[in-house]
Design goal:
The chain is built from 9 helices and 10 strands. The strands form 2 sheets. It has a 5-stranded mixed beta sheet, with helices on both faces. The protein has a 5-stranded mixed beta sheet with strand order 8-7-6-9-10, sandwiched between helices. A hairpin with a 2-residue loop joins strand 2 and strand 3. The protein has 2 domains: 142 residues, Nucleotidyltransferase, domain 5; 167 residues, ATPase, nucleotide binding domain (Nucleotidyltransferase, domain 5, 2-Layer Sandwich). By secondary structure, the chain is α/β, with parallel strands linked by helices. The two termini are 27 Å apart.
Length: 339
């Protein structure tokens, strides 16, 4: 189990088919095939996603190996996303990983998709070493389906110390965007328009939840009722105020996220903070975390934008650490929609 071992990562939890190869912590390739078919439906259609994965998985893995200049026989291990995610999509990736493991003799390594997002902070690229968080560190994991504060004590020891009790921050972005008739996915559309707006123009509810947990359902309701009342008076209200609505909504979500992160810093005394997950691509949140670090004397870490969305590089790097610790999986392992 040499540190220079070559790991293939496979990611298929939702609508992106991805394969990546790492040698040690250095990324050799990261190939992603996205699915545009879902845009017409305003969300991911599970059956369509799994069918697209079946079409994409072989060419994506082949391309990743080709770019890395690696043969299947060279692989030290094959890491794959076990969950959480869409069960049909996961089945494609897990089944392919099993078949390749049988063909090559390489061991399997299961990876929790969320743990992969956290571990994306430890990816290096050829000729470039990026700053990595020092252990222990706090990671604000924010995506369409999850919002959590994790205390990362060791590479593979992540303790959830705060999480949403209802909707995730990404859901709040997407659902509020849908009400404003913005294109799917809504989060990036809100982020783009927010850069042009007045973030102090409108005020929305901030649910008061005890401890380090989050809630975003109240914010969504507040936003919806506010628009309903305003549109009743002026049918063109949303169109006339779209950039300010996006800026104010984004500011509110970011303030909710960082308020609990501040409490987590005070509670744990940990001064290393990072963000991960799809929403960590949000320009407002990235800027706010840097300001947060300066204000509270913390070192802040931002993942490279290419590692914020679903990708196999994060699965490969997480798999690498598990492989080095002897944590391999058997061929009868099954995917899990929830983990």
């Amino acid at each position: 189990m040499a540190d220079s071992g070559i790991i293939l990562g496979i990611e298929s939890s939702c609508d992106d088919t991805s394969a990546a190869v790492v040698r040690g912590v250095t990324l050799l390739s990261n190939v992603i095939a996205s699915q545009s078919v879902h845009e017409a439906y305003g969300g991911v259609v599970p059956e369509l996603a799994s069918r697209a994965h079946q079409q994409n998985i072989i060419p994506v893995v082949s391309r990743a190996l080709e770019l890395a200049k690696v043969q299947p026989r060279d692989l030290s291990a094959i890491a794959f996303t076990r969950g959480p995610g869409l069960i049909g999509s996961l089945l494609v990736g897990v089944s392919f990983a099993k078949g390749l493991a049988l063909a090559t003799g390489a061991p399997l390594v299961e990876v929790n998709h969320l743990q992969g997002h956290v571990m994306s902070h430890f990816i290096d690229e050829p000729g470039r070493t990026t700053p990595h968080p020092k252990l222990p560190f706090l990671c604000l994991l924010v995506s369409g389906g999850h919002t959590q504060i994790l205390l990362v004590k060791k590479m593979l020891e992540h303790e959830i110390i705060g999480q949403t009790i209802d909707d995730a921050a990404g859901e709040a972005f997407d659902k509020c965007a849908k009400v404003m008739e913005l294109p799917y996915p809504g989060g990036p559309a809100v982020d783009k328009l927010a850069a042009q707006g007045n973030a102090q123009k409108f005020t929305f509810a901030k649910p008061q939840i005890a401890g380090l947990d989050y809630s975003f359902s109240g914010l969504k309701t507040s936003f919806l009722y506010f628009l309903r009342d305003q549109v009743a008076q002026n049918p063109a209200f949303v169109a006339e105020n779209k950039v300010d609505l996006c800026a104010s909504l984004q500011r509110t979500i970011i303030e909710i996220l960082l308020h609990k992160l501040e409490k987590a810093v005070k509670h744990t005394g940990v001064k290393e903070v990072a963000i991960a997950g799809g929403v960590s691509a949000n320009a407002g949140l990235r800027s706010a975390l840097c300001a947060f670090g300066q204000k509270h004397g913390c070192t802040a870490y931002l993942p490279a934008l290419r590692y914020t969305t679903d990708n196999a590089a994060m699965i490969a790097i997480a798999g690498r650490f598990k492989y080095l610790n002897g944590k391999t999986a058997s061929l009868d392992i099954a995917p899990l929609a929830r983990m």
